[in-house]
Q: What sequence folds into this?
């Protein structure tokens, strides 16, 4: 893998370019407290976002919101090149609330997937190129230039997203459609007892086939996905101080506090108590 990257000192902004040969597995962190902008410069990928699978091709641009569950998986041709930005809202905060305006526009869409024309792709790639030039030269006030370029990209995306329907980029594979149905069921019933045999019976498929197509489609094992959805729900409950940890474990679908603590630390990288206290980065 050929990587070009930059991360700000406060970790509020990062940009990278990767050229990948062969099959590639996305790192284990499938949700984060940052926005993510993903641009595919070459090749094709499947992008699982929330509960749907999109077939992403050259010139497609994707915005992942804070805390949104997502993962990319290999398509038939695994070689690809992608440009990636992570940012936190404070990086582009402005006094006149213009940041809120553009992010509210983008957050208003359930899915932010865009297929760009050649001219549009050239404009987006030019913005990325200017960002890389600023991070490599690091002349005085280069961070301000990065902020301006990022805002320009977000405005561009906001104007575009009003005129496009992300559903046109959905994968038409029957397998992917079946997995989307299963994902929606899990998202709605995560607090209940869930098992591979039980879900397989509900959707009239074998446990083996269920496990195989789920992993191929989403990049998650079924158990990993269920636990990740439960931890996301638990994080929201932890922000409400009126719930005790034992109540949150139960509401999130865990059988015991010890299991909840273990899985939370495994997926989030820190303990539930640390998250509640706000002592994690």
A:
């Amino acid at each position: 893998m050929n990587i070009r990257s930059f991360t700000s000192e406060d970790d509020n902004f990062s940009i990278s370019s990767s050229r990948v040969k062969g099959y590639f597995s996305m790192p284990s962190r499938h949700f984060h407290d940052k926005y993510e902008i993903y641009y595919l410069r070459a090749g094709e990928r499947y992008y699982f976002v929330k509960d749907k699978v999109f077939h992403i091709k050259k010139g497609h641009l994707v915005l992942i919101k804070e805390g949104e569950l997502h993962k990319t998986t290999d398509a038939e041709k695994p070689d690809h090149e992608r440009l990636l930005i992570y940012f936190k809202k404070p990086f582009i905060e402005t006094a006149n609330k213009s940041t809120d305006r553009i992010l509210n526009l983008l957050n208003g869409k359930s899915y932010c997937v865009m297929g760009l024309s050649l001219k549009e792709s050239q404009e987006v790639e030019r913005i990325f190129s200017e960002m890389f030039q600023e991070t490599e030269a690091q002349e005085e006030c280069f961070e301000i230039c990065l902020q301006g370029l990022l805002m320009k990209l977000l405005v561009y995306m906001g104007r575009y997203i009003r005129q496009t329907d992300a559903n046109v980029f959905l994968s038409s594979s029957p397998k992917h459609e079946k997995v989307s149905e299963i994902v929606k069921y899990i998202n709605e019933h995560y607090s209940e007892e869930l098992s591979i045999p039980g879900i397989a019976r509900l959707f009239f498929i074998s446990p083996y086939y269920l496990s195989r197509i789920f992993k191929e489609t989403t990049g998650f094992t079924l158990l990993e996905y269920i636990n990740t959805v439960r931890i996301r729900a638990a994080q929201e409950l932890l922000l409400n101080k009126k719930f005790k940890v034992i109540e949150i474990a139960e509401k999130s679908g865990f059988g015991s506090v010890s299991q909840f603590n273990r899985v939370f630390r495994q997926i989030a990288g820190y303990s539930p108590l640390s998250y509640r206290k706000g002592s994690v980065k």
